[in-house]
Structures are given as C-alpha cells and as structure tokens.
Amino acid sequence: MIAELVFMMGQFEARFPANLLYSKNHMWALPNATAKSLRFGLSAYAVRLLQDVYFLDLVVEPGMLLASRQEIGSIESKKAESSLYAPVAGEVIAINENLLNDPTAINLDKYGDGWLFELNDSYQSQLLTPEQYIGHLKSAWEIAQRTIKGQANVDS
C-alpha cells in the first residue's frame, strides 16, 4: 500500500499519495521514468472543492508545446466552472480521451483512471513534494474557506 499524507478540509479528509508530486494549481503528477513523462490529474483537494465533476474540455493534443500556466481547457462541476492551466511547461504526450466522454473517473478514481494528460518530464523540478504541497495548502486554507463561504472580498 502506498503511504498517504492527509490534509483536513474542515471535517473532510483530502488524501495525497506520497509517491506523487504536486503543483500549486492542485494537480498531482506521477513520474514515469521509462517514458520520461509526467501524468497529471486533479488532487483530492481540487476534486473536493469542485464536487461532482460532470464536464471536461481539454483544448490540448499530443505534440503541442505548453507554457507554464497556459490555459489547457475547462472543467464543470456541481460547485463551479473553472479553467484549467498547465502546471508546468512541456510537450503534451497524451490526453485521457475517456474523460472527455465521461469525466466521472475524476470523482471516483482521481489518482488512477481520472488522470487528465501527460507531459514530457523536462520541468519536474518545478513540482512540489507531498510535504511541500501540504504546506502550501495550509498557507492557502484560510483564503479557500472564505472563498467557499462567498466571503472572499470581506476584510477580516
């Protein structure tokens, strides 16, 4: 069994496998040394905030070169419609075509069949360890709570 780190989102647990890397835009990355690629998906934190993803549109395709933070598509859920951005720069190696027809795997198997796309691993060093990602979440949690509660513009 793979070790996991846990971040408490109020009363809900968000679990993060310790064998993955993470980005500040709440994506996980699974390094594949053989293919020299990184497979990306949405972290438990992102999926919990979105709740019940029902639509995914990726506007990237294999062979495309992406800049870091370049818009790569959009996602819709019960809670929000959001743009998706590349966590790092790189060349798109593959996209998960199955999710374009049925994105429920993002909800049910976020760290497995719910992967979104693969990039070459040239920029792997820009990603966070699980411990660094948990630190990032802790520092951003207060802002996230206010946003969830619709109080993002209220001074504390």
Helix and strand layout, with pairings?
Blueprint lengths: L3 E6 L2 E6 L3 E2 L4 E6 L4 E6 L1 H7 L2 E6 L6 E2 L4 E7 L3 E5 L4 E6 L1 H5 L2 H5 L8 E4 L9 H19 L8
Can you walk me through this structure?
The chain has 156 residues and is an alpha+beta fold. The protein has one domain (4-148): OB fold (Dihydrolipoamide Acetyltransferase, E2P) (Beta Barrel). The chain contains 4 helices and 11 strands; from the N terminus they run βββββαβββββααβα. The chain has helices spanning 44-50, 97-101, 104-108, 130-148, and strands spanning 4-9, 12-17, 21-22, 27-32, 37-42, 53-58, 65-66, 71-77, 81-85, 90-95, 117-120. A 6-stranded antiparallel beta sheet has the order 3-4-5-11-10-7. It has a 3-stranded antiparallel beta sheet with strand order 6-8-9. It has a two-stranded antiparallel sheet with strand order 1-2.
Mean pLDDT, to the nearest integer, reads 89
Named at the architecture level, the CATH assignment is: Beta Barrel
Poorly predicted segments: none
What structural class results from the helix and strand content? alpha+beta
How many helical elements? 4
**CATH class bucket:** Mainly Beta
What characteristic shape results from the CA principal axes? Answer: globular
Helix fraction? 10-25%
Return Rg in Å: 15 Å
Strand content: 35-45%
How do the SSEs run, as a string of H and E?
Answer: EEEEEHEEEEEHHEH
Largest sheet: 6 strands, antiparallel
Domain count: 1
* Tally of strands: 11
Span from first to last CA?
42 Å
Strand order of the largest sheet: 3-4-5-11-10-7
CATH topology type: OB fold (Dihydrolipoamide Acetyltransferase, E2P)
Q: What's the name of the CATH homologous superfamily?
A: RNA polymerase II/Efflux pump adaptor protein, barrel-sandwich hybrid domain
